[in-house]
Amino acid sequence: MTITVQAFLLCDGVVIDSHSSKPIVQGVFDQIAAxxxxxxxxxxxxxxxxxxxxETACNIGVAVLTPSGTRDLPIPQQSMKPAANGIVQAIINLxxxxxxxxxxxxxxxxxxxxxxxxFRLLAGRINPPDALAVAKGPLH
Length: 140
Fold this sequence. Notes:
Elements: E1 2-16, E2 23-28, E3 31-34, E4 39-53, E5 58-65, E6 71-80, E7 87-99, E8 103-111, E9 114-125, H1 131-136
């Protein structure tokens, strides 16, 4: 009786192909930049794919650890049942993802309450261009 994490990704979005039922994961990213913090990412998704062997169901959830160590549980645990081939797939849409501070965020995949996978997101700062340097630069 095992549960194997086959994928745990932060991305722009996931589309399920209407003909093949294959997930199309778009825009996987592990870095983001904002001019100032706190900041909000308007819309992104987590894609989860598990293989359950000898298990009839599992509970999945997500916890987020901020750079300063605060733990948030933006996704409550949900019970998931596998398809006939033992696969569980979940697309978790994160609308208005709050980023309180600059640094590394850890997204933890919780399976039956246990952290089973981790995805890190580095939140950095956009440095505004030096207006004087741009004005003195060559014209294109």
